[in-house]
């Protein structure tokens, strides 16, 4: 992809109940090769700060099938209470559906009551096993995200676009209920993914710089 504007559609959910109309945000995507490895790694560090934050990592668990409760609003870190398992389905179909408690509130923003189940998406569920971020190191998450075999077969541009169409992501930056929002902002996060990608998706433990950024 050459230099250009990546048009991202922001779904106006969870920010305010006033409007559910999508609005368009234009994020400038740097051309591949125009970003140094150092800048790429700086951008990656910010991406990692987001990915490892409880608002993201609590759902991004691996084969344990157990969502996590972590972050200051939870006190101690522990698996989701009430013996909740997501199962192979990742939505609890084999046990108790996530949607039993994580119901979508019609047009209402998130859930402002502390310790109530977040109510933001009809399809509240665990991330795919491959996107196993909870407690994982920066290099481990980095390698997963740049590996098409484990990231849903996405280019970095597709990762950036993917980030924006999901109301869960909007919730993570505006969770309410005494929960700490994810760091930076959704727009900054998308820019960081694009910057990291244009630098050739460097990871902190790479032996040598990737000379040729993946198109
Ligand atoms: C409620 C659970 C949940 C939360 C919270 C959550 N995610 Fe996800 N995430 C998912 C699910 C489910 C998918 C798979 C969606 C798909 O493939 O269509 C996913 C997929 C992704 C992907 C695609 C890449 C891959 O390897 O599969 C990225 C990137 C991502 N999430 C980033 C984030 C970030 C950043 C946050 C926090 C700001 C976050 N997620 C919070 C459930 C969650
Ligand atoms: C019996 C009700 C119930 C069921 C079923 C349930 N949850 Fe929850 N969930 C809750 C409650 C309540 C909280 C908030 C607890 C708190 O803040 O102290 C929560 C919080 C969470 C969180 C933490 C969100 C954050 O970062 O603050 C995640 C992740 C989560 N649930 C995922 C799931 C998944 C995935 C399923 C299905 C496999 C599921 N839950 C099923 C009640 C439920």
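Q: What amino acid sequence fits the structure above?
A:
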């Amino acid at each position: 992809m050459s230099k250009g504007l990546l048009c991202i559609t922001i779904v106006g959910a969870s920010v305010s109940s006033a409007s559910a109309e999508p609005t368009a945000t234009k994020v400038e995507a740097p051309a591949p090769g125009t970003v140094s490895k150092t800048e790429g790694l700086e951008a990656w560090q910010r991406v990692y700060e987001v990915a490892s934050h409880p608002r993201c990592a609590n759902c991004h668990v691996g084969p344990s099938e157990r969502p996590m409760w972590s972050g200051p609003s939870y006190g101690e870190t522990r698996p989701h209470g009430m013996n909740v398992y997501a199962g192979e389905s990742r939505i609890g179909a084999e046990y108790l559906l996530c949607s039993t408690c994580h119901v979508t509130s019609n047009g209402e923003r998130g859930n402002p009551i502390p310790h109530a189940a977040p109510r933001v998406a009809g399809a509240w569920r665990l991330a795919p096993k491959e996107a196993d971020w909870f407690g994982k190191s920066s290099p481990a998450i980095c390698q997963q995200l740049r590996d098409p075999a484990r990231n849903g077969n996405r280019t970095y541009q597709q990762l950036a676009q993917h980030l924006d169409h999901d109301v869960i992501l909007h919730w993570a930056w505006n969770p309410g209920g005494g929960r700490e929002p994810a760091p930076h902002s959704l727009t900054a996060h998308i820019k960081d993914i694009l910057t990291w990608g244009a630098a050739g998706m460097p990871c902190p433990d790479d032996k040598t710089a990737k000379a040729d950024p993946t198109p």
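Q: And what stands out in the fold?
A: Residues 4-198 form one domain.
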